Amino acid sequence: MSHKIMVVDDEPTVRYTFERFLNRMGHDVTSLATAEEALNRIASFEPELVITDVRMPGMSGLDLLEKLRASLPEVDVLVMTGFEDMQSAIGAIKAGAYDYLVKPLEFDQIEAVVERCFRDRAVRRRMKHFTNEAAEPYALNRLVGRDPRMIDIYKMIGQLSQTRAPVLIRGETGTGKEVIARAIHFNSPEAGEPFVGVNCTSLPETLLESELFGHTRGSFTGAVTDRKGRFEMAGSGTIFLDEIGDTTGSFQAKLLRVLQEREFYPVGGEQPRRTEARVIAATHRDIEALVDEKEFRDDLYFRLKVVEIVVPPLRERRGDIPLLAEHLLEKIASEMHKDVHVIPEDVMGAITGYDWPGNVRELENALTRAVVLSRGPAISLEHMGIDGAGLPGGGAAMAEDDSLAAMEKAHVQRILRRTGGNKQESARILGISRPRLYRMIERYDLDVPE
Question: What is the pTM assigned to this prediction?
């Protein structure tokens, strides 16, 4: 079935490519160079789908999205950009974009999302129900990455910021689970309310209950006054329970009541208190295994994982490491008032090749150490505390050729072997498009397992 699609991009080659491809799919397509031109043609062309770039001269794609959401909410908008940043991803989803895609795009990806969009439109038409919501765009730069799984997390943050549903964030230590929790909170309508974080492993059970629920005077030795707990302090904001997988069954039962009844009892108290706080929990542990072993309540698990976010470890999104390293170096140097801003090629190659078992937190600590010890504008491996021997595959191979190209070749070859030659999975892990992977395979004459 043919549909009307409008493409808005200031690059002529992009417009031409989209027109040819979408015409071959059987759609009626018009393409324009600016958002202003698009708005002038909307009424006469009456598109069902608008595909727009984000960054263009004059009005941006997000501005165009806002205007369309306000005046023509029935028009779906697909946002694309070559600037893979969290601000655009979350801003687009919050403002009502149907989806968000990162350049360079592949034809099968475009075809899939366009077909999905029109299938969803047909369902909405039958149901006579539209769910687009408008919201103001915002900026947030604590999360950095362009790996497809990170892009999906940015989208999820945009959606979750408009709800009060409990969230369970899973990932290894140091992957940034609390940063994601804060992103959800501070981009929600309750951003002005408190964000209260509690590490559940840092306190014994009795003190954890007092910390979260408060206590009454005389309820235990040392309780000389009534004390509010974190749930009460959070008000209608967010309470973040880190390492929830390490809590006891007794505590889990009390937390389950809070989620079910929206009330709790202070330690020693006889009257329940209400809470409107949203609960976001996080864990690095295999929580399903804990449930199977009866160490974690299955009813609490299902209450917490209304929405689940899985954060990939840094070693599985190596394509993000250079971006992260540069971002963190700029932040650290600014905080320390030091003019350190250069990551030499050999250092970047080593940083990208290292597994970072402590993830983003370990990378930040290593860069902080390098900035502290640096005597000039560039950091060194010696100051970071890692060297070739610490890289996957050992340092011997690196000693023969420690150029960035050699490191890149070795790393891509390792990923291809790890995936058994699966190019789609290899490209996902590397954080690059499949066409780029094909070019690297040809350039480096890599061995692709069958």
Answer: 0.59
